[in-house]
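Explain this fold:

***
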Amino acid sequence: MTIMTQGNSEGMRRCDGTCHNARKPKCTCICGGRYHGAGKQAQERLTRDWLGDDWREKKAEVEAAGGSFTAVINDALARLTRPQRPRPAQASLEFDVPARRSS
């Protein structure tokens, strides 16, 4: 599974199963070794890196409020990648929990 890609006029680079399932220590992909040899934990590690260790609690909170966690993440990604906004050196997602819907 590809967990991240990066492309420009010279081509595409990615971090995928070749890296995650690697047995040798040298990583040549875009993760710089962060997900190298991590196996099935690579996706979980990437999620924690972007959303924090408490992402499951945040997901439960969003869903308890009647929101869509996927929509919240997509909104956060859109804010993070807007061209007019300067990108921080260490990017992370900030997302809002929707107001609880009344029944």
